[in-house]
Design goal:
Helices cover 39% and strands 17% of the residues. The protein contains 41 helices and 36 strands. The longest helix has 23 residues, at 1156-1178. Pfam families: TAF2_3rd, TPR_TAF2_C.
């Protein structure tokens, strides 16, 4: 039997010198994608693909490919018609009968559904049968060309059409389409092997209207017009072997800009945005130069294309030789705030060209290497471009994010290893989704995964040095580029795939260092480290006694053993000490260098060699210590809580030159509201050479301290005099100078100070009147006429400041708030907001930043009870057609309203939008915002929690989001937040037919339920034959035997099979089906009242008991296709293999049971079941035919088929379905006995 699948253990075992071992029984070498018709009106695509494959085993008779939502018309192999089956279990994960509503059950079913079609395990949705005429050809391992005609109609994922509803032709309207998706989603728009590890060369052809441009991967070879000049075809060739997952497409009326600095780089944008495009991309060549220089390696492709499109799925998506960006990243030279963000996006996409597109990964468990390397070199670019301070600030930001996430959720595992008994050391940290596959991950987990990956690369760099690190990258790239130029040696191409073990091997070869402990700590297990540090100074011995405790019992933490750096700043200078953290040692004695304080006034040397005068009056007279820092280089993924006196934090803030230390000091000083802290913060605000982000953080800290010291505070409100001195007129201190944003540092400070000042409160907990007047004056006298930069972000921050000054309304005698009896201060704020909103309609600001701030401010006024709480304004701003930032801000307000007012109506409105909104990003954001700010949680009672909501969300994640992995995982996250892992509390208790033991992955039949299946149902009485059949059904499970155990790993195939055939019974004359098949084949699919259809002794049915775990599909077209081809090829082709070909029969039998577990299970019960089946087969069995006047939907018929009686239709139709994983199609009607979850199935030997 050919290895059509490989068990995951084999996939992920250490790949030594043997290189990559493919899970597929063939090697793909070349693929042609030709899309010859794109209709923007109907949002449809028609085309074909041609895959050139070399079989790697003899007797290959089934080929599995990936394809979702494509309608497949015909498949030809070497010009011979081939029969095929389409089966996508992810369309509906749990079946309609299943009244299970717990997330554990869903997650297991979803993980199984995804792996059933996972190309990395050799699976796929499309299974093609090699015509028998080609078997000899295949046995000689000769080339096969598979030609597939397909179409796409209104795709819900993978390809996104943007068609503005305005006047004019499609090009004039700016209509465009582009490919998008998360991880490997290419299968959504053409049939392929959608795996990062299957590389091949590509020929891509797209025929579009003459006014459109098609941009795709590789080199544009030629553009050919049709005779009537109305259409043209773009021909692209990609000669560097690339995986299908890195293929992309963008078609639209793009304006084209050839990069003036690098002619092989081309930029594309939508009409009228060319000036912005020129400015935005003018910097890209510097990024190229930087990467090529540090990697000492040329950019791997012959060209690079950037395409800016609307309604982007993510801001940056990198594909082979091209990247797709959101058009919202474009900006002019007047915009300050967006510039660094856009440059970062460009740099990120370029880093992924090297690691991610050119170098791909062997399997999902190696993804961390690619994300880590591309994130790491992007960090190096950032350090060079924005400076060390910005870089260290970014590292601290990323570290804080990952630490907070892991402590909250229980950990991020970079290198999930499956099988091989490793599960014990490597427990999956996440209960509500499987981490074994990218498509089952929560989106937040995936972003944190990328963040942790680059931080771990930085830890490796700390261990082996940057020089060696870059040598390792260079080695990977040069091996890959050598391999990519081997045109006819496709076995060499696996050098372009990176694996964890290969990467570690390169590191040890290049550096000679063993980093295994580091990998074991951060890559092979999840969790971060939590340190608590405290110290005492022992004057007698002149030592610092440092105590470092660890918390490794909380979720998301782990124990750290190894070196830890501690920096001590003393009077005589700064000293580094490396402590060895052992299993149980807590106390460490660190000798001090300085004798305690001398009276001689002398300068104190700092870490960077600078010497400064300090006022030492605050410090402890006995000790020479100024401050202590634990792990200053962030060389451990950790959270440090260290205790030191307030004066030490103040010294650290003032004199430590590292921005991370300053930020730590600022957050610590919030706990010490003293005049000394106030002074230290004010000094930092005034220091021009201090990093601008530190000064911004100091503003907010100062506001908090001022509020804590409100009774003792003297002088004007915090920061006011400072702001007046820096930004206001000398003669008239309440009038601000005309804007001049030439110094970006002072621009950011000028923007932030008023926002922080607005947080000040007086003794009555109100915002001081003079602060509000001051902010209103800033707005009133704002003058941007002489400024070369736009002030839209500045004005938006002024509105944020107004919102910050709002305090809860005091209501007198419950009077209703109207505009007449508004508090005068609030009236002023409301007038400003209204004026700004009206101005925005006439003169919109860049990215509508002002509208966004106004909407937030209105929500603040509503929440504080100043204006009536009403979501209608936000709902109108959230409609499709507004700019995306406005929509998100409005939706955020609606989500908040839903929570505060417990409004079921708004929750329904939001969920409807999740289902129907045209923009994938907006749908994703709504779920994300509901998860972050949920209307209720699993631990609280809420009127919103009811059965209808559970059903609606279940349906959304079960079948409503099958076209977008990210959306489905978002729905799962929301379900988890609202209802938790187990069955939602608002549901009635189920009567379970099975007792699930999830720990052992076993399910035991509940014996008490069987008799109920035969309970005197009227339907059953009408049809005595089915009744007897059911009685017979009890035998295998009668109490004489032990409870039958069901192996949960084998549960998917049977269910698919049965629901497929029930479907056939249910829709005997679906117009769609009859259209695609000749009349005579109909009899094969509909049970007739004839003796020939009864069970005959010749068939040897074989039992296979399985649990419902895989999904059926809602989509009918793929089924129609397959039935049609099944009919086109003689039916016998599928069912009967030639008797002589023994191996095929064997293969035919076990085709889907390739995993060892399944095989074992199957053989265990085989003989017993065969015997039962044979006896049962002899019994007479009359089937009500739909033609016989009685509905095929009758419950007894359902129950009979589900009880596994040898339904003749099942047997006849089996031939069309090849194997037990037939079609999965949902039944519209629930059967009466829907609580029983037992399925039994025949696989038929011939």
């Amino acid at each position: 039997m050919p290895p059509t699948g490989s068990d995951p253990a084999r996939m992920n075992r250490k790949k030594g010198d043997k290189g990559f071992e493919s899970p597929r029984p063939y090697k793909l070498t070349h693929q042609v994608v030709c899309i010859n018709n794109i209709n923007f009106q109907r949002k449809s695509v028609v085309g074909f693909v041609e895959l050139t494959i070399f079989p790697t085993v003899a007797n290959l008779n089934r080929i599995k490919l990936n394809s979702k939502q494509c309608r497949i018309y015909r498949v030809r192999i070497n010009d011979l018609e081939a029969a095929f089956i389409y089966n996508d279990p992810t369309l509906e994960v749990c079946h309609s009968e299943s009244k299970q509503r717990n997330l554990n059950y869903f997650s297991n079913a979803y993980a199984a559904a995804v792996s059933a079609v996972d190309p990395d395990a050799g699976n796929g949705e499309l299974c093609i049968k090699v015509p028998s005429e080609l078997w000899k050809h295949v046995d000689e391992l000769k080339v096969l060309k598979i030609h597939i005609n397909f179409s796409l109609d209104q795709p819900k994922g993978g390809l996104h059409f943007v068609v503005p509803s305005v006047e004019g032709s499609m090009a004039e309207r700016g209509a465009h389409v582009f490919s998008c998706g998360y991880q490997n989603s290419t299968r959504f728009w053409f049939p392929c092997v959608d795996s990062y590890s299957e590389l091949c060369t590509w020929k891509l052809e797209f025929t579009v209207d003459a006014a459109m441009v098609a941009v795709s991967n590789g080199d544009l070879v030629e553009t050919v017009y049709t005779h009537d000049m109305r259409k043209k075809t773009f021909h692209y060739m990609l000669t560097i072997p690339t995986s299908a997952s890195n293929i992309s497409l963008a078609i639209g009326p793009f304006e084209i800009l050839v990069d003036p600095y690098m002619h092989e780089v081309t930029h594309f944008c939508l009409p009228q945005l060319l000036p912005l495009l020129k400015h935005t991309t003018s910097y890209l060549h510097e990024v190229f130069e930087f990467y090529e220089e540090i990697l000492t390696c040329r950019y791997p492709y012959s060209c690079f294309k950037t395409v800016f499109i609307d309604e982007a799925y993510v801001e940056v998506a990198a594909y082979a030789s091209m990247s797709i960006f959101s058009t919202n990243l474009l900006h002019s030279a007047m915009i300050i705030d967006e510039t660094p963000l856009t440059r970062r996006c460009l740099a990120q996409s370029l880093a992924q060209q090297f690691f991610g597109c050119f170098i791909s990964r062997m399997s999902w468990s190696d993804e961390w290497v690619l994300k880590g390397i591309s994130g790491y070199i992007y960090g190096l670019w950032m350090k060079k471009t924005f400076g060390v301070n910005e870089y260290r600030h970014w590292i601290k930001e990323e570290l804080d994010k990952i630490v907070a996430y892991e402590l909250k959720t229980g950990g991020v595992l970079l290198h999930p290893i499956f099988g091989g008994g490793k599960e014990k050391d490597n427990p999956a940290p996440h209960p509500h989704f499987s981490i074994k596959h990218p498509h089952t991950l929560s989106w937040e987990y995936y972003t944190m995964f990328q963040c942790k990956a680059h931080l771990v690369m930085r830890l490796i760099e700390n261990r082996i040095s940057m020089e060696f690190m870059l040598q390792v990258f260079n080695k990977l790239l040069s091996l890959a580029s050598t391999a990519s130029s081997q045109k006819f040696q496709s076995h060499m191409w696996s050098q372009m795939l990176v694996s964890t073990s290969g990467f570690l091997k390169s590191i040890s070869n290049v550096s000679g260092k063993d980093i295994q402990p580091l990998i074991k700590q951060w890559v092979d297990q999840s969790g971060v480290v939590k340190f608590y540090g405290s110290f005492a100074f022992n004057r007698k011995r002149n030592v610092l006694e440092l105590e470092i405790k660890q918390d490794y019992t909380s979720p998301g933490t782990q124990k750290y053993v190894g070196p830890l750096k501690v920096t001590v700043q003393e009077l005589d200078g700064s000293f580094n000490h490396t402590l060895q953290i052992e299993e149980n040692s807590l106390k460490h004695d660190i000798p001090c260098h300085s004798k305690s304080r001398r009276n001689k006034k002398k300068k104190i040397p700092l870490m960077n060699g600078e010497e400064v005068d300090m006022d030492l009056s605050a410090m402890d007279a006995d000790s020479p210590l100024l401050w202590i820092r634990i792990d200053p280089d962030m060389a451990v993924l950790r959270k440090v809580d260290s205790e030191q006196a307030d004066f030490m934090w103040q010294y650290q803030l003032r004199y430590e030159r590292d921005v991370v230390a300053q930020q730590e000091a600022i957050s610590a000083l919030e706990r010490f509201p003293t005049p000394a802290s106030r002074l230290a913060l004010t000094d930092v605000l005034e220091q021009e050479q201090c990093f601008y982000r530190v000064r911004m953080a100091a503003c907010f800290c100062l506001a908090k301290i001022a509020n804590s010291m409100v009774s003792t505070w003297t002088g004007p409100p915090a920061m006011k005099s400072l702001f007046t001195r820096m930004f206001c007129c000398k003669t008239c201190p309440n009038i601000v100078k005309t804007n001049n944003f030439m110094s970006f540092q002072s621009y950011f400070l000028q923007k932030t100070m008023p926002v922080a000042m607005a947080l000040l409160r007086d003794v009555h907990n109100l915002c001081p009147k003079e602060v509000l007047t001051f902010i209103l004056d800033l707005i009133k006298y704002n003058d941007n006429r002489k400024n070369k930069f736009s002030d839209n972000y500045y004005r938006a921050e002024m509105i944020d400041a107004l919102a910050n000054s709002v305090t809860p309304a005091v209501s007198v005698n419950n009077e209703v708030r109207t505009l007449d009896n508004l508090n005068p201060d609030v009236r002023l704020i409301l007038e400003e907001i209204t004026r700004f909103l009206n101005m925005e309609k006439l003169l919109p600001s860049y990215r509508h930043t002002i509208t966004v701030s106004c909407l937030r401010a209105i929500r603040v006024l509503q929440k504080n009870g100043h204006v009536p709480s009403d979501p209608s304004l936000f709902k109108s701003y959230a409609e499709y057609g507004h700019f995306v930032d406005i929509r998100i801000a409005a939706l955020e307000a609606v989500v908040d309203y839903t929570k505060v007012d417990r409004s079921y109506e708004e929750l329904q409105w939001l969920l409807t939008m999740v289902q129907n909104d045209p923009v994938p990003y907006v749908r994703h954001k709504i779920l994300n915002m509901l998860t972050k700010n949920p209307p209720f949680t699993k631990s609280m009672e809420s009127p919103l929690c009811n059965e209808a909501l559970v059903d609606q969300l279940w349906k959304l994640m079960n079948s409503g989001t099958s076209h977008d992995w990210r959306l489905r995982c978002g729905a799962v996250d929301l379900y988890f937040t609202l209802f938790g892992l187990s069955r939602p509390s608002c549901l009635p208790l189920p009567e379970l037919g099975l007792v699930l033991n999830l720990k052992e992955k076993k399910a035991v039949l509940n014996p008490t339920i069987i008799p109920e299946a035969i309970a005197g149902n009227q339907e059953a009485a009408v049809n005595p034959s089915s009744h007897t059949q059911l009685v017979g059904f009890q035998n295998p499970f009668s109490s004489s035997q032990d409870e039958e155990e069901i192996d949960m790993d084998t549960v998917h195939d049977s269910q698919a099979f049965i629901s497929h055939h029930l479907n056939m019974l249910e829709r005997p004359s679906t117009p769609g089906l009859s259209k695609y098949r000749p009349a005579n084949s109909r009899s094969a699919l509909i049970p007739q009242h004839s003796a020939g259809c009864d069970g005959t002794p010749t068939t040897k049915p074989q039992w296979n008991m399985e649990l419902p775990r895989k999904g059926t599909g809602k989509e009918q077209p793929p089924l129609e296709m397959s039935v049609h081809t099944a009919a086109a090829a003689p039916l016998s082709v599928f069912g009967k293999e030639p008797a002589s070909s023994k191996h095929s029969e064997h293969h035919h039998h076990h085709h889907h049971e390739h995993k060892k577990k399944k095989k074992k299970h199957k053989h265990k019960h085989k003989h017993k079941h065969r015997r039962d089946g044979r006896e049962r087969g002899r019994g007479p069995l009359a089937f009500p035919s739909p033609a016989g006047g009685r509905s095929a939907r009758s419950p007894s018929l359902y129950r009979l088929s589900r009880a596994g009686g040898p339904a003749p239709a099942c047997r006849a139709a089996y031939r069309t379905s090849t194997s037990s994983a037939g079609k999965m199609i949902e039944r519209k009607k629930k059967s009466p006995s829907s609580k029983h979850l037992i399925y039994i199935i025949y696989t038929i030997e011939t």
